[in-house]
Amino acid sequence: MREKFGKWLSEKQIKGISVSVVLEAYDEVSSFIVSRKIYKLGLWAIQTQKEFKYVRTTLLGNKFFRAIHKYACEIFEKTWKLFDEFLVLNSQSDEKTSVESSEQETKTKTEVPTALYKELFEIFRKNPDKWYTFFEIGSQLKGMYGRANVQIALDNSEWIEKVDDKYRYKSTTVTIKREEVKDEEYYKQKHPLLYQKLYVISKVFDDAQGVSLDRIFANIGPNCDKELVVEILKSTSWVVIKNDKCYFNAGNIDDIEIDAKDEKSESDDFDKEKYVSVLMNRFRNGMTFDSIDIEIFRDTYSDLYDEKIELSDDELISRLKKCGVYYQDRLFPAEGIIDSETNTKLFNYIEEQFSSGKKVLYYKAIYTELTDVFVYCFSLTDEMMLREYIKFSAEKGKYYFFENYMSTEENVEINHSQEIENHMLSIGKPASYEEIYDGLSHISKEIICKLVRFVC
Question: What pTM did the predictor assign?
């Protein structure tokens, strides 16, 4: 693609800028969108205007790109229309060749609406182990596609298996045969670190509503072996997997009851993962709820998922607030503030502090103590934003949040005198007021000054 675009630019004889400069700038753009996971295949793999529009709008809205790659950004802004034009011409050329060679072969598939395939995938993926009759499938479809089209789509979908006029999702990823699973002791010995990490996760996310496999994968890390993770989970005595969710320390699977009504209303209301994905790709540095950002969110969602958001602005905003951290009139995706690895370090630190006997943790103290940990968290501006992030990300009901500090106790009492005395003893030598201020920066200087005189 790069060579074809360069050749096309040369033939077009653009003025004021050399072809090599454009290509170098686009190479820089390609590396950036891969590294930031905007488009994992890079700029030169883009084939359609729709893909390019998504990449372009996301890229030009990224303040980090504009600041660090200023020159490449300027070149891109001046020439993106040329690349868009090139994609149209290239697509027409490829399409003509494709139609001539395989018109008869693709005729049946193109007659079936794409939306039907998407709806079928959502139905089967929601309950991958369930066998559906044709009637059950038709009753769950939202669109009016016709019996013939539904039958064609079922027959042409490689991810659906059929037995005795019933259909089921045919998994190619994490489904494993029960007889292939080793026992729990085997995984303890063979994969001790991964086993221990999963066990820790089971304690942190011991939620009666269950924890999705995707959330577990995200907490382990982006390069985790998903099949191995599921194997280990299925071998253990402290987890049950049902409907792509893990129920830790749940006992017998038959004892697990899921409120079908609540689950249906939540999943049918809006797809939270899709909303978060749009926020991460387009509003990593925050989204305001003005008409411009709302419109950009709707357009980006439509470009990504080929569907419109049929909600009023107020309804959309109320759902968006469930998808990120709202601070100073801006909504931030949680992972855009703190990545999963840093998140683990943060909550490990919090747990260690409370385990050591501390009754309260000041947000300012956490922010100051973990300065080196937060070095690449560019969107994290201050301790109050950290407070909102912790409130959003922490296990529900585990902590109590107050204006300047958090605690594991609802009616905790603050003892500044004891805290100051302990700090002075830990220094182990006479200390100046400035040294005490630095070590207890979460407490005002007036309080420290008054209590030091009293303690001493």
Answer: 0.42
